[in-house]
Design a protein that fits this description.
Elements lengths: L5 H17 L14 H9 L4 H7 L10 E4 L5 E6 H18 L4 H28 L6 H21 L9 H11 L16 H12 L17 H4 L9 E7 L2 E3 L2 E2 L2 E2 L25 E2 L14 E2 L3 E2 L11 H4 L2 E2 L2 E5 L18 E5 L5 H11 L7 H13 L9
Parallel strand pairs: 2-3, 7-9, 8-10, 9-11, 11-12
Antiparallel strand pairs: 1-2, 3-4, 5-6
Helix pairs in contact: 1-4, 1-5, 4-5, 5-6, 6-8
Bound molecules: zinc ion (ZN).
Length: about 400
C-alpha cells in the first residue's frame, strides 16, 4: 500500500482555494467564467506573471516565491505564499479561458491544482531533508529542484482523480503553463519523467544505497519506497501561509492547521506511474532483448531498455549512434564493456541497476560523471582509467 500526503493537503486545499479565488471577482452567473475589463486590469497587476514564474521556479530567493521549505529543526517548516500562488493562478487562468470554457467549479479545481504543485514540491524538499546523507551543496541544490518539480508532476498525475471537474483540454492547458520551468535546476525536471530514472536519481542524490532501490521492482511498484515513506503523514512538518502580505497560521473550520500530524484520512494506492511521456522516446522494456541491434540508430528522446537481458554493452555505439536523452538499463545484468556509452552522441545519462550486482552501482556513478561526453576520446580514456582504478576491469572496455 502506498500512502501520500493527502491528509495534509485536504486540510489546506479549501483555504488555499478560497483565498486565491477571492483575489479577483469574476462573472459566473451566465455559464462559463468571464473576465471583465476591470478583472483583467486587476490580474495585470498581480505577481508573478507566467514569464517571471518560468524564470524563477517555485521557491527562488526572489519576491515571487510560491513556497518555501525551512530545513528540519524538528519540525521542518513549509510556507505557502498564497498571494503569489494566486498571482500565478490568475495569469494562467486568463490564458486558459482564452481557448477553453471554464466553469466556476473547474476554476476552483485549477486554483487547487496550482497550489498543489507547490505543496508537493516543498514536501519533496522535506523528504530530502529528512533522508539526506550529504550536505546540501549548490550543485545538489539545483539537482534537487529538478527532482522536486518531477515529484510534483508525478504527484499531480497520481492525484488526477481529485480534480474531477477538469477535462483533458483544460488539464493539458494547465500543465503546459504550470510546468513551463526554465530556471537553472528546475528546467531539468523532464529528465526524470521515467520512474526508474527518477527513483535512481533520488537515491543517488540522497546517497541512499538500499532502502529506495530495494523497491525498484517493476513499473507499478518502483515508486513504493517514496510513496510509502511514513513522513508523508508524520508530524514532522509545520505549515505556514502568507496571505495579504502577512505570514501566519492558516485557520480552517475554526482551528489552526499548522501541525497536521493529528489528521489522518487514510491512505491511497498509487494508481498512475508514467514510464514514458515524450513521443520521441523508444521503449523496448521487458522484451527479453540482450542486444541493441535493430532498435534505432538515432533515438531522438530517451531509450528504455528496462528489465531485459543485456549482459554486455560491447559495441553498443555501433547500434545506437545517437541518443538525445537517457538510456535506462535498469534491471539488466550488465557485467562488462560499458565504455561504448561514452561514444553515443548526445547521451546525457544512463541508469545501470541490477539488484544482484553492487558493482554496477559504482559503474553507473563513474560513467555518469563523464556524460554527456564533451571530451571525445579523452573522456573515454579518463572514464576507463577511473573504472580501472576502481578495480572494475571487465567494465572498462568498449
Ligand atoms: Zn524547490
Amino acid at each position: 500500500m502506498i500512502e501520500i500526503s493527502e491528509h495534509y493537503w485536504n486540510a489546506i486545499r479549501d483555504a488555499c482555494v478560497d483565498h486565491i479565488i477571492d483575489m479577483v471577482s469574476v462573472e459566473t452567473e451566465r455559464g462559463p467564467v468571464a473576465l471583465s475589463a476591470s478583472a483583467r486590469k486587476k490580474i495585470e497587476r498581480l505577481k508573478p506573471t507566467l514569464a517571471t514564474f518560468s524564470e524563477t521556479g517555485d521557491d527562488s530567493e526572489s519576491l515571487n516565491w510560491l513556497g518555501k521549505y525551512a530545513p528540519m529543526r524538528s519540525p521542518g517548516t513549509i510556507t505557502l505564499h498564497l498571494d503569489n500562488l494566486g498571482g500565478l493562478f490568475w495569469h494562467a487562468l486568463k490564458q486558459i479561458v482564452a481557448k477553453e470554457q471554464v466553469t466556476f467549479d473547474q476554476m476552483r479545481d485549477l486554483a487547487a491544482a496550482t497550489a498543489y504543485v507547490t505543496f508537493l514540491h516543498e514536501m519533496f524538499h522535506h523528504y530530502c531533508d529528512v533522508n539526506r546523507g550529504t550536505p546540501n551543496e549548490t550543485l545538489a541544490r539545483l539537482r534537487e529542484e529538478g527532482l522536486a518539480v518531477a515529484w510534483s508532476w508525478y504527484g499531480l498525475h497520481h492525484e488526477r482523480a481529485t480534480f474531477p471537474t477538469l477535462p483533458d483540454g483544460i488539464w493539458q492547458a494547465f500543465l503546459d503553463l504550470r510546468f513551463d520551468y526554465r530556471a537553472p535546476g528546475y528546467t531539468e525536471w523532464s529528465d526524470y519523467l521515467h520512474c526508474h530514472v527518477f527513483v535512481k536519481s533520488v537515491s543517488d542524490h540522497l546517497i541512499i544505497k538500499t532502502s529506495l532501490l530495494a523497491h525498484l521492482g517493476n513499473v507499478r511498484t518502483c515508486m513504493d519506497g517514496l510513496f510509502s515513506w511514513k513522513g508523508w503523514k508524520g508530524k514532522s512538518v509545520h505549515f505556514q501561509f502568507v496571505r495579504n502580505g502577512a505570514t501566519g497560521e492558516l485557520e480552517t473550520k475554526g482551528r489552526a492547521i499548522g501541525r497536521l500530524g493529528v489528521l489522518n484520512r487514510g491512505s491511497k494506492v498509487l494508481t498512475y506511474v508514467p514510464t514514458s511521456v515524450k513521443r520521441s522516446d523508444v521503449d523496448v522494456s521487458g522484451s527479453g532483448k540482450s542486444s541493441f541491434a535493430g532498435i534505432r540508430r538515432n533515438v531522438t528522446g530517451d531509450l528504455y531498455f528496462c528489465n531485459n537481458n543485456a549482459v554486455s554493452l560491447q559495441n553498443i555505439h555501433k547500434n545506437i549512434g545517437k541518443l538525445n536523452g537517457t538510456l535506462c538499463l535498469y534491471g539488466n545484468p550488465v557485467r562488462s564493456n560499458v565504455l561504448g556509452l561514452l561514444v553515443i552522441e548526445g547521451l546525457k545519462r544512463v541508469v545501470l541497476y541490477d539488484q544482484d550486482d553492487t558493482n554496477l552501482t559504482k559503474v553507473s556513478e563513474i560513467v555518469n560523471k563523464y556524460l554527456p561526453n564533451t571530451q571525445g576520446k579523452k573522456g573515454v580514456l579518463l572514464c576507463q582509467r577511473e573504472l580501472l582504478e576502481a578495480g572494475l576491469e571487465e567494465f572498462a572496455k568498449l
